[in-house]
């Protein structure tokens, strides 16, 4: 698999509960993707802020890495690997 760096803004429906973030769906390039499986997540500290990264598989079998930045309260697609 070859991943492509993207770093584009996206819209995300997510659940913020008990100090944790769970992305459920996201919209990229005019299309809504349902998250089928979360493969992993990690946090990168950036000074006082943090970037939350999520590796996932969407409903069409494509792999994505999305990121939530607490400095800007924005979501981004970080990387994609389009398989499906």
What does this entry look like structurally?
This protein is globular. It has strands at 4-17, 20-28, 31-46, 49-58, 63-69, 74-81. It has 84 residues and is mostly beta strands. It contains no helices and 6 strands. Strands 1-2-3-4-5-6 form a 6-stranded antiparallel β-barrel. It has one domain. Strand 1 (4-17) and strand 2 (20-28) form a beta hairpin.
Summary tags:
single chain; 84 residues; mainly beta; six-stranded antiparallel barrel; 0% helix; globular
Spatial strand order of the main sheet: 1-2-3-4-5-6
What is the count of DSSP helices, taking H or I runs of 4+ residues? 0
The whole-angstrom Rg is: 12 Å
Mean pLDDT figure: 92
Helix content: under 10%
How many domains make up the 3D coordinates?
1
What is the first-to-last residue Cα distance?
A: 12 Å
Judged by helices, strands and strand pairing, the structural class is: mainly beta
Provide the low-confidence segments as ranges: none
Strand content: over 45%
The SSE order reads EEEEEE
- Please give the largest β-sheet: 6 strands, antiparallel, barrel
Number of strands: 6
What general form does the structure show? globular
What oligomeric state is this? Answer: single chain
Compact summary:
With 84 residues, this protein is mainly beta.
How are the elements arranged and paired?
Layout: E1 4-17, E2 20-28, E3 31-46, E4 49-58, E5 63-69, E6 74-81
Antiparallel strand pairs: 1-2, 1-6, 2-3, 3-4, 4-5, 5-6
């Amino acid at each position: 698999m070859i991943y492509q760096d993207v770093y584009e803004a996206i819209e995300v429906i997510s659940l913020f509960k008990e100090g944790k973030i769970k992305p459920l769906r996201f919209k990229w390039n005019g299309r809504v993707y349902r998250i089928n499986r979360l493969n992993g997540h990690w946090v990168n500290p950036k000074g006082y802020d943090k970037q939350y990264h999520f590796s996932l598989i969407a409903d069409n079998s494509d792999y994505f890495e999305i990121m939530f930045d607490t400095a800007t309260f924005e979501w981004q697609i970080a990387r994609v690997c389009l398989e499906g």
